[in-house]
Design brief:
The protein has about 325 residues and is an alpha/beta fold. The protein is built from twelve helices and eight strands. The strands form two sheets. It has a five-stranded mixed sheet with strand order 5-4-3-6-7, sandwiched between helices. Strands 1-2-8 form a three-stranded mixed sheet. A hairpin with an 8-residue loop joins strand 4 and strand 5 (about 100-105). Helix 4 (about 115-135) crosses helix 9 (about 210-235) and helix 8 (about 195-200) packs across helix 9 (about 210-235). The longest helix is centred in the last third of the chain and has 26 residues, at about 210-235. The two termini are about 15 Å apart. The mean pLDDT is about 90.
Length: about 325
Amino acid sequence: MRSTADWIADRVMDSSQPGDEVCVWIGASVGLSAASFEMLEEAFEGSVRRLVESGRDCEIFIANDAVSILKSPPLLGRGVAAIVGTGSIVLGAHPACRDGVIRRGGYEWPVGDRAAGIWMTVESLRLVLEDIQDRGSAQYTSPLLDRLCDYFGISSEVTNRVPATHVALARAEILSAVLGQGGEDRKRRIAGFVYPYLFDLARIDPVLPHDPIAAKVISRSVRFIVEDISSVSETLAAFTADTPNARERLPLVVAGNIGANPIYQQQLMAAISECKYVEPTKVIGDAAPTFAQLAMHFLKSDPRERKLIGRSFDPMHEVHRLL
């Protein structure tokens, strides 16, 4: 956190002069609680002091990345934001909805993050294991299993003493143990298999190997995300009118490196077209430029609008002001 705070302060110092008005908006990939905000304040203390002493008129906000997308152009607090990357979450908000944010997913991967990168890797192995148990381990071949072993460093020497009839099952079992281990940055490491490896195996190409299980995992991920988008949009739309046919169609923004992948995006667009209360979708991939737009929107707004931008949707989805 401190290195991030120092990096932000350095960028502000490099790109502005004393007296310049500056806004920084940080999208955090994890939920922010009161406890985590206290840690953030402590981590940013030195950098904040440096900015104040430099004479910069600077304001720094931090919120969940999906909350930040909801507040950014083009949604500006009205619509649905979906993130499909290492983790996943679908959030929606509308001025007519006094309940605050409508949310599906976004919880840590042992219980949530359904359809996200980490889920897709675990689901790949789960379906491979299921396939081995159905078809038997003897003579079993799978490009997906081979690629998983290569990615997680499971060499063929590990199974030298295992009978050939059980090698496939043994490799899958070892992979299960590896995925269950702790370690720094393990979420990104596990999710990192999806792009490009899982997408490569899902692609139908006469030259490259293809695995139907890889294609099935991507299709399931799309289906789960669209289910959440449909649920959030229908709940929000119900606040806009009593009659179903009179209810608003809501704009949707999809972010995340997986959501922006061409293979994933093609399936996602086709599935979303069936959602009743969703307008044509914008896929942005990396959300950093969107947060920069939000910061600029804040600077160009009048005092009343600034208060609205900095206000939390509800106690569970807070916007914190660090400076």
